[in-house]
Amino acid sequence: AMSDLKQQLRDDLTTAIKSSDTESVGTIRMALAAISKEEVAGKAARELDDDDVIAVLTSEVKRRKEAAVAFSAAQRPELADKELAEAAVLSRYLPAQLSTDEVRDLVDKAVAGATEQGLVGGRAMGAVMKELKPATTGRFDGAELAAMVKQALGM
Fold first, then answer.
1. d(C-alpha 104, C-alpha 84), whole Å
2. What is the pTM (predicted TM-score) of this model?
3. Is the pLDDT of residue 1 over 80?
4. Which of 18, 46, 52, 83 is least surrounded by Cβ atoms within 10 Å, i.e. has the fewest?
5. Residue pair 104/148 in contact by the 8 Å Cβ criterion
6. Rounded distance, CA 68 to CA 82, Å?
7. What is the pLDDT of residues 98-143, one digit of tens each?
């Protein structure tokens, strides 16, 4: 079965084309291309599920935001705005994002649990990240999460 999210993107592309929403058309086309690329990236072609599609979209949003920062630094606000507009279109397909405070609470609870089990260092880090993954995937930046966990573990 095709990912519901991928089908949603396809349906929204059709709607955007009909309503001449050129910004959405271009952005959704790029997203679908990135999804197709991911489907054939491994040893064997595969259908992506919603979680896979969310991962692709998350990295696409991240890429747009990083590009926007670079364009702003280069005094190219119009290009930065375009990247942010694309990021906003793609963000509509992502789960609600978690705030840093919400994630900090989750991290603190998970770290307390690992500490109770007597886990330290890398083992604690692995256990905490594994526990937090389902709640945070697609909803919070993974690198930022890892940094927060390291800090909470005093690593």
1. 26
2. 0.76
3. no
4. 18
5. yes
6. 8
7. 999 999 999 999 999 999 999 999 999 999 999 999 899 878 888 8
